[in-house]
Design a protein that fits this description.
globular, 73% helix
């Protein structure tokens, strides 16, 4: 219990201390106009207040990741708390803040465009393909997982196919309509439901004295379960997630002022870390240890853990509301995943999105591909998503490091977690059956060599970019800030 409570307290302290430090290091310009005004188009670019943007950002980034990931990560024991807390403060929130703020400084640009500007033109094409793949995977995963929860919640009386179709129908409207029509109106309500349900379970865990295990030297490294690299890919959302780099530009295009960035980007990642801590604690304490948890996951997946934990902690009515909150999470991230994919493709081919028919030309093929992917085994999709997700986080952290290097600021803040995750993702793909299937010890060596080469190339490019004075931001002179 003490480890869990201390972790929550550290996350909150991290927002007010390290978050403030990162904000000061970046250097907020309160007089600079944001893309919400300079590029206003009434569809994707338009100003919304910070409360609304914060709750939308939370729902955008918090899919099933901060719930399903920590539930799976709970199998490693209390060491999962360490990654959630320190990963969130020093990696995930830094990743989200820098991605959002650099996007604001560059017309609300998405990650592929930022990668092209700061890491080279080749990287723009690579990251564009990678980001679209990730977003389609996310959109697909976030169709099947809430569909399964809804199917269970309704007692199985409705077919999975009908539920999947209904979710896709909602995605079409949310992806195509202006951001203030559905997302801007309903997400703040959904965000409140998400927070209330998570906090309710967290309070119940404390009040009932649930046997949440404490971190100790003996359980720091679970037997027969090497935590590196698997733990750092299993728990992504809630600690560090590249998916967020595809979502923050949505809100960078609706942010009224740069001074709101810490609350919207850094703060909502901390909120997601709190949600992750609560679900990891519930998974560790309610099912008679890792053996019972493993059996429940094997029989019904992480969704079964969500349903069981919600009912145990909050009763039938409260548990149902909590499950609804969890269902909302992936749906409200799935629609913005498709929205981001549409925007990235439109930016890449310079295709205006003011007319709805133009949006349809991009969105319809994306939905068709995603629907076909729903026929593939969920667990296989999740494994590919985990690797693609954290690889995207590495790219985003290196973009942030390059920006700060050119600006002659503290680039180590994003570069250190970026180097760590580069080693983790490379080790994983070398070792995993979905990758090269190389023995783990050999994968460590191979990953170290590959990481060293890529880091050396980063510094070579960084020195060259600084010497060439690569522009850090778009010129918005002549625009009056309206906020």
């Amino acid at each position: 219990m003490y480890t869990f409570i201390a972790g929550i307290i550290l996350l909150i302290i991290g927002y007010f201390t390290y978050g403030k430090f990162v904000e000061k290091m970046f250097g907020v310009n309160e007089n600079r106009s944001t893309p919400a005004y300079t590029n206003q188009d009434g569809v994707d670019y338009l100003p919304m207040n910070s409360r609304k943007n914060s709750l939308i950002q939370l729902l955008n980034i918090a899919g099933v990741g901060p719930i399903f990931g920590p539930i799976m990560g709970a199998l490693y024991g209390p060491v999962a708390f360490l990654w959630i807390v320190f990963g969130c403060i020093f990696a995930g929130a830094v990743h989200d803040y820098l991605t959002g703020m650099i996007s604001i400084r560059n017309r609300g640009a998405h990650l592929p465009e930022l990668a092209g500007k700061f890491l080279g033109k080749v990287m723009k094409h690579v990251v564009n393909a990678f980001a679209i793949l990730l977003l389609v995977l996310v959109g697909t995963v976030f169709v099947t997982s809430p569909a399964a929860l809804l199917h269970d919640l309704m007692g199985g009386w409705s077919t999975m196919g009908l539920i999947v179709g209904a979710i896709f129908l909602y995605y079409i409207f949310a992806t195509l309509l202006p951001i203030d029509k559905i997302i801007g109106r309903f997400y703040p309500i959904f965000g409140a439901l998400l927070l209330i349900s998570a906090i309710g379970i967290g309070i119940s865990l404390v009040v009932t004295g649930a046997p949440i295990p404490e971190l100790s030297l003996t359980n720091l490294h679970p037997d027969n379960a090497p935590i590196f690299p698997l733990l750092f890919l299993t728990i992504s959302c809630g600690a560090l997630s590249g998916f967020h780099a595809t979502q923050t530009p949505i809100i960078s295009r609706t942010t009224q002022a740069e001074k709101q960035g810490r609350k919207i980007f850094y703060g909502m990642m901390i909120a997601e870390g709190v949600i992750a801590m609560i679900w990891a604690a519930a998974a560790m304490s309610l099912f008679n240890g890792s053996t019972g948890l493993n059996e429940l996951i094997a029989n019904g997946g992480a969704a079964a853990v969500v349903s069981e934990a919600s009912t145990l902690m909050l009763g039938a009515v409260g548990g149902t509301l909590a499950v609804i909150g969890v269902i909302v999470l992936p749906i409200t991230s799935g629609d913005t995943a498709f929205r981001s994919a549409r925007m990235i493709i439109a930016d890449y081919v310079s295709f205006s999105q003011k007319k709805i028919v133009n949006r349809l030309w991009i969105a319809v093929p994306l939905f068709a591909i995603s629907f076909a992917l729903t026929k593939i085994d969920f667990e296989l999709l999740w494994r590919y998503f985990s690797w693609a997700n954290q690889s995207t986080a590495v790219i985003a952290l290196f973009v942030g490091a390059m920006y700060l290097y050119i600006a002659k600021k503290n680039y180590w803040i994003p570069l250190i977690p970026g180097m760590f995750m580069l080693m983790a993702t490379t080790t994983y793909i070398l070792n995993a059956p979905i990758g090269f299937g190389i023995e783990l010890s050999t994968s460590y060596v191979g990953a170290a060599i590959i990481s060293a080469i890529l880091i050396a190339l980063f510094f070579y490019a960084a020195k060259k970019n600084r010497a060439n004075s690569i522009p850090l931001e778009d010129d918005v002179s002549g625009w009056n800030k309206v906020a």
